[in-house]
Design a protein that fits this description.
TIM Barrel; 8-stranded parallel sheet; 13 strands; disordered N terminus; 3-stranded antiparallel sheet; alpha/beta; 14 helices
């Protein structure tokens, strides 16, 4: 039995009515084109929205003499991307670009962001039922980032903002970024933060196992979120809506140690928090890109099902069964599954939940 059959059998046997099915396209299938899969609940389509989908704009990359890391990142191959989405049962992607421009000077950074945001707006407008996008900003220049945030959302119709976990050597919790976070909170924009590895540990992560990614990326997210908590940023801006990639890294798995740390080393906690560190998990959002039902169950136990959204990390093939993963995680109600699959993302990103087109 393959993953598709297993998830369908699970859904049909224990859920209130959610199932994963293949459906006919409105146009004839071309040779090699996958059949579009969709999630149904009592015969009604459940829109699935992937909040963790990468892309790259070659014109912007070229400005900093970089290369596109992976062909699948290119939006010129949009049909291949749509085919992959159809095969996996993904109705919409929220496109984001990992920051490579945080070291650029102001003028170059401004041009990189302009090119990227215009292209993201163009692809979203060309396929409005399949793509929305997070605006990109040059966080190393916070005043410029504020302008880019407003332009991206108000002029281009982008739906939130993406950010790395660190800007140069500055944590996201650094006071330099307070004006930016104030504007994000004011606008009610969802922030998608993605790791960039941990260069400071480069010497220890060398060797077999691509440890700079497998360990380094979730560690980067863990550090960023911990600073946002312990430096009081989440208290200062309680309306911030932050979604952390890869299930929030290691933080949700070991967050209770943060609570215990306050008791064990009270003199080392120099910022007074309004609540226990673990309680901040319930005001953060996380994608579902963790690899077993037990890991997802635990994340939900720590943060709440309302804080989890579907994520695939496309085009990187960490998993191609993200929808099945959510359907097959036990102890979830169908209302919770529907929210994780797309309902929460639709609310946060302002996406209409209509019929499948």
């Amino acid at each position: 039995m393959d993953a598709r059959e297993a998830s369908a059998r699970y859904a049909n046997s224990v859920s209130e009515g959610i199932e994963f099915v293949d459906c006919e396209l409105t146009v004839p299938l071309m040779e090699g084109q996958p059949r579009r899969r969709e999630v149904l609940r009592h015969g009604r389509h459940v829109k699935t929205i992937d909040v963790h989908a990468h892309c790259s704009i070659p014109e912007a990359v070229a400005l900093l003499n970089r290369r596109v890391e992976r062909p699948g990142l290119l939006l010129s191959g949009v049909q291949d991307r749509l085919n992959a989405m159809d095969e996996q049962g993904i109705d919409m992607e929220a496109l984001s670009i990992n920051p490579f421009w945080y070291g650029a000077d102001r003028d170059v950074a401004a041009e990189v962001i302009r090119i990227q945001n215009e292209k993201l707006a163009e692809i979203s407008a060309s396929y409005p039922d399949r793509f929305v996008a997070f605006t990109t900003v040059a966080l190393q220049h916070p005043d410029l980032a504020i302008e880019q945030l407003e332009t991206g959302i108000k002029r281009y119709g982008l739906r939130g903002v993406s950010a790395g976990c660190i800007v140069g050597e500055l944590e996201l919790a650094d006071p330099k970024f307070h004006p930016f976070w104030a504007k994000v909170e004011e606008m009610g924009a969802l922030v998608f933060i993605h790791p960039q590895g941990t260069p400071a540990l480069e010497s220890r992560l060398k060797g077999s196992g691509v440890l700079e990614n497998v360990i380094g990326n979730p560690l980067d997210t863990t550090i960023a979120l911990s600073h946002l908590i312990f430096e009081g940023t989440l208290d200062r801006f309680p309306g911030l809506k932050i979604c952390a990639a890869h299930g929030g890294g290691y933080l949700p798995s070991y967050a209770a140690r943060s609570d215990a740390g306050i008791v064990t080393f009270p003199e080392r906690f120099t910022v007074s928090l309004k609540k226990r560190p673990t309680e901040y998990l319930r005001q953060l959002y996380f994608d579902s890109l963790i690899f077993t039902p037990e890991m997802l169950r635990h994340l939900i136990a720590e943060a709440g099902a309302s804080q989890i959204m579907l994520g695939t990390d496309y085009p990187f093939p960490w998993t191609q069964t993200s929808v099945d993963h959510i359907l097959a995680t036990p102890e979830l109600t169908d209302d919770e599954r529907e929210a994780i699959l797309g309902g929460t993302a639709a609310t946060l990103l302002g996406i209409e939940v209509g019929v499948l087109s």
